[in-house]
Design goal:
- This protein is 0% helix and 49% strand.
- By secondary structure, the chain is an all-beta fold.
- It is globular.
- The relative contact order is 0.32.
Length: 124
């Protein structure tokens, strides 16, 4: 059974940082595309960043480049999202996702494995 378990969310003031983690199990993490999504209240879920299985190729949503960094440690089956210079508009539920493929990892609509999410709240 595939499981994705996020952690690291919380409350932070504007300008602060958080690092989210996602522990994957039930599949070979090194063979899967992985990504972070977020969903703010009243808004649709959006892709934040994605990383290819090897970990060296990443893709970021244009609006978040320079502030958010995705990475993965395949030896630990763990995905990360480093978030810096956080803004109130970054407040959302953040989800880890995976797709059992090694290609087109930037194709956010094709992700079909999901964690339950971790809440990030940024106050001004």
């Amino acid at each position: 059974e595939v499981q994705l378990v996020e952690s690291g969310g919380g409350s932070v003031q504007s300008g602060g940082s958080l690092r989210l983690s996602c522990l994957a199990s039930g599949y070979t993490a090194s063979s899967a595309c992985m990504a972070w999504f977020r969903q703010a209240p009243g808004k649709e879920r959006e892709g934040v960043a994605a990383v290819y299985p090897g970990g060296t190729t990443t893709y970021n949503a244009d609006s978040l480049k320079g502030r958010f960094t995705i990475s993965r440690d395949n030896a630990k089956n763990t995905l990360y999202l480093q978030m810096n210079s956080l803004k109130p508009e970054d407040t959302a539920m953040y989800y880890c996702a995976a797709r059992l493929s090694s290609t087109l990892c930037y194709a956010f609509p094709q992700y079909n494995l999901w964690g339950q999410g971790t809440q990030v709240t940024v106050s001004s």
